[in-house]
Amino acid sequence: MGTKLIYFVRHGETENNAKNIRQGPEGSLTEKGRVQALATALRFPKKKGCPQVIISSPYQRTKETAEIIAEELKIPVEYSDLLVERKNPSEVIGHWSQEKGVKQIIDRIDGSYHPDDLRISDEENFIDLKKRAKKLLAYIARRREKRIIMITHGVFLKMVVSYMLYGNELTASKYNNLSYFNPIKNAGMAICSYIPHWFKKNEWKLLVWNNLCNTNFMQSVAIILPYAQIILSVILVSAILLQQSGAGLGGALGGSDGDSFHHTRRGFEYFLFILSIVCGILFALSAFLAIIIKAA
Fold first, then answer.
1. Distance of CA 63 to the CA centre of its chain
2. Is the dihedral of CA 104, 183, 12, 145 positive or negative?
3. Distance CA 213, CA 289 (A)
4. Are 220 and 293 in contact (CB under 8 A)?
5. Three-class SS of 76-127
6. Is 138 helix (H, G, I), strand (E, B) or coil?
7. pLDDT tens-digit series, residues 24-63
8. CB-based burial label for 266 (10 Å; 0-12, 13-18, 19+)
């Protein structure tokens, strides 16, 4: 009956996310979304403390996110319809969120206080979503694993956490308030714990919300790094060639057998020697960094 850790992860960015278009089940990750998913995967330990299973929504974007994380961690993936995103009204799917009619529907569902049983058309309304969140928590409690990754979607993830906090007391107004002030970004993570008890109510706790790896810096470094390696390579090769020229270097600089030039030449060769060592170290470090960036 030990504590369980559940790592809820929102899927990476999709084309429709980037364009602010309301989605259905379809829609694959962008390249940025794949980088986000991999960056999230690299945050998990691979040995001690590694999650034991990934359970994912079967939607295309969550499947792709789950596959990237599973490949990195070498753990199995299962799929559950309990983790799918809230079904939007058919009138808004595939449409830009700021279209007049679409915006009115979205504002009424997500941005206003309304009765729990409000239903615009064929969508999954608050009551439906609350029931599914309750089912998901019961499903997690029955699982044997102690460390679980769940790949899901923004709206439903906020509903799950809201139900953890309020239980059956959760209302549409309370949910909308929490949802508005607590966004979850693409590939953002919410870490929760479940503690079962014999003689009192089992405990759900939210430990971390919207924990996100900053991939912008890593992408910038990845772009710059090859050029830095080329420059370091040119400097290193040039320094080695100049050192190998030996006595020829003195003639090239106009000296012959004079003592004063001899000291100048030796001083210049020493400078080249130090420069070669520094460039070699920097190149080794940049190569090591390239390996890390590639993995990320």
1. 15
2. negative
3. 17
4. no
5. CEEECHHHCCCCCCCCCCCCECCCHHHHHHHHHHHCCCCCCCCCCCCCCCHH
6. helix
7. 999 999 999 999 999 999 999 988 999 999 999 999 999 9
8. exposed
Render 158-197 in DSSP notation, one character per residue: HHHHHHHHHGGG--HHHHHHHHHHS---TT-EEEEEEE--
Better-scored residue on pLDDT, 286 or 10: 10
**What's the token pair of residue 197?**
């008890």
Q: What is the CA radius of gyration of the chain?
A: 28
Cα angle, residue 215 at apex, residues 66 and 81 outer, rounded to 5°: 20
Stronger pLDDT, 1 or 214, i.e. the higher one: 1
Q: Is the dihedral of CA 145, 5, 156, 43 positive or negative?
A: negative
- For position 140, what pLDDT does the model report? 97
State the amino acid at position 20 in one-letter form.
N
Q: What is residue 213's three-state secondary structure?
A: coil
Degrees, nearest 5: CA angle 183-186-191: 70
